[in-house]
# Entry
Amino acid sequence: MNIAWFRPTTPDASDPLDDTAALIDELRSTHAIDVIVEAGAHDFVWRHFQRPWDLCVYELDNTSAHQFEWAYLLNYAGVVMLKSPVAHNSWGATLSREGRLDEYMAGFRFEETNAPLEVRVPLLASRCVVVPHRSLAESLQEGYPEARVRYAPMGVQEVRGGRGGREQVIFGLLDRSRRDVVERAFQRARDAGANIDLLKNDSAARILAECDAVVALTWPPFETPLTPALAGMAAGKAVVAMEIEATAHWPALDPQTWRPRGLGATAAPIAVTIEPRDEEHSLMLAMRRLTTDLPLREQLGHAARAWWQAHATPAHAAAAWNPILQEAGSLTPPLRPSDWPKHLGADGTELARAILNEFGLTSDI
# Structure
């Protein structure tokens, strides 16, 4: 299958946090994939007219860098990889910048109480939508039975992590989630005598190579990817993550008791997960214990890497994506509702049609 894959940047296989780069590499063993970034997106229309792609895939996230994709996903129905169910910063960025207030407000009127426009539109405009969390897929499918929602796990590439061989224990911060909380907990642990340092503001590859443990407090739930935590596991590091619905199936330790979470837990813990209601104090406890307990750090790191090898490699992600792509190739998008905002159906030919109409002419543009 020939696939046009829309994303903001060229895939970077050297970046451990670019999980889609590894997925695309895996999928290229069975598909021909052309990556479409914003700089070259304007060529897509004529290229697609001359030699159509079989399918389009759109990575959609809550950043302004993804705004260019909306015009294409609305006119060339394909598969949407919904990396976050909140994408206001992508769909609204262009309308806000261009002062299209009426269309911006029309989008709000189209919203429903159970899903904002940036979720409802891809669900109803696409052949199918793929999300990285099973519980999110179930929730969206229940809310929109006419949509086609599919689940495919994230997969991160193998990361070669090492240890600095220093007495000081280094915690690596790979994302900005709850950064203020992390810094406060770090300072509290340090004030209590923990010989630790916090590595941040560096490349993910270097942080993973230098640190002894990874802090990845995914928040808000579902809006921030689990990629940093999975990258830490792939590097064989002890990982401290948030206890949320997306991580609830992980075998994990509770830093309040240092006992496994869940009843009858038998699998080796792969992470320490903290309650959002006590995040700063729990994180401080986790940092203090992991600083002094080398055997526990190593046990968590070995178990985490084994779990990654069994569940979260790019091969696992591709195995889920392949049947989704095959299915999507034969699907058409659901019928759009009667209250579909007019500007969401614009295809760029409106001005040309208006000029032709002045002369009483029509054309199949």
Notes: The two ends are 27 Å apart (CA to CA). DSSP finds 15 helices and 13 strands in the chain.
